[in-house]
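In response to reviewer comment 3 from the previous cycle, which asked for concrete evidence that the modeling workflow produces usable outputs, we include below a single protein chain processed end to end. The sequence was submitted unchanged, and the resulting structure tokens are shown without manual editing.
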Amino acid sequence: MTGPRLNRRTFLQLSGVSSAALALGVTAPAQALAAAEADAGAVPDGVFGLGVASGDPGTGSVVLWTRLAPDPLAADGHGGMPPRPVPVRYEVATDEGFGTVVRRGAAVASPELAHSVHPQIDGLEPGREYFYRFHVGRQVSPTGRTKTLPADGDARFRFATASCQAWYHGHFTAYRHLVDEDLDAVVFLGDYIYEYAITSSNLWRAGASVTPEHAVEIQTLEQFRLRYSLFKSDPHLQAAHAKAPWIVTWDDHEVQNNYGADGSQYGVLPEHFVHLRAVGYRAFYENLPVSLSALPEGPDSRVYRSFGDGGLVRFHVLDTRQYRDPLPVDAADQNREDRSILGAAQEAWLYDGLAASPARWNVIANGVTVAPITTNRTDQWDGYPANRRRLLAAMERTSNPVVLTGDIHKHVAAELRPDPAAPAVGVELICTSIASDGDGAPTDAYTPDWVQHPYVKLYDGRRGYVLVTLTKDSMTSEFKIVPWVEADASAPLQTVARFTTPAGAPGLERLA
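The workflow returned the following structure tokens.
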């Protein structure tokens, strides 16, 4: 399904973004910084109302992020900021007290990009903890902690996975517990926001209320910005961003439920839908700690990318929305050999990357379920069985592949097999939601669909996250849940299952 596209120049003209604004949001030379400081004028107090974050970690680099917003829930989506550029200085240190500062720099927060900045810090040491903060005039941001990826194959690496955080369905209790973990990174697997109108029928978060601006389905860039601000107003989410660097991909709700490529399932014409996708992708870039390479060119944004030079772990981050073929019209269409959920270019990139990776563990961050469950789940990889066979064939030739997935609001641990009787070629760790669908329950109406398969080793429908620990010898995956999220954020943390996966022996051995 295709329609008229927006090229980069047209999109920048329509949106008012200049190439200079893009560059200055990453780094500002002295002359540009001086000009911005001269023109900035008075800046409201409380500009760091959305916190700080880091992301896209490499073995020697990381991206820092903040978005200036003294009034994050201002109805116009501009966060209470004046319509002019504001200089932002940053510093990176090896200690929380900033006694040893190793990097200083500046960027310019422009209104064209919602006063966000994305400086990339290079030349850092592998596997090392750092601390960072921002300055605007005399205002100082909260301190964030970040860490580079290890280059040493003998290192230990621990990360948590999260997804699906419908703020209006419940409290972000899981993040309250996640920040107490010993973490090197957080991998977020999609549905950072939801585009639906927030009304009395779906506002299940006790004690919460919203203004009328939130009671409409998102259509504009300003509405997307406001929705990110609403979700980011949660203190536990801000704390989770400040805890460790995030590796982020998207699923569908960053634009529209169950969309694929240029196709809307709600009757929006392709020539109109690409405009919605363009502003959704733009807001994603503005509000998350991703590098400048993820900035959209019109309705196109490359978020598939890899992190890690080898050693213990390499992350391969996928986009299962932007390039997929339309949902199948019948079984014959569904089983066509040329169907792809990734698109030809991304498939080639992934398989080449897996084949060339020297890492002990190859972690694939993915939006929707890979394991075969039922043939009518066509929005998942079940709708693209030929693409799944190609992926599993590539995984079979890869060192210790692990797929991470979100989307379904359930905890699932599954072994990935070319067919049910074949040995596993990898494992899939599916994390439940942070809040989407409210409290949830251990079992539900979908449980039989999943547990009918011997390769599915766990199914639990409560909220939480997955904690993963990698060493050269094994992977340990711990599925954490909280019993409730709707009433308040006080629920305790429980571990419902622990698995080990020995290096070189794909499978899931249950420990508890």
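The chain has one domain: 8-510. We consider this sufficient to address the reviewer's concern, and the full set will be provided in the supplementary archive.
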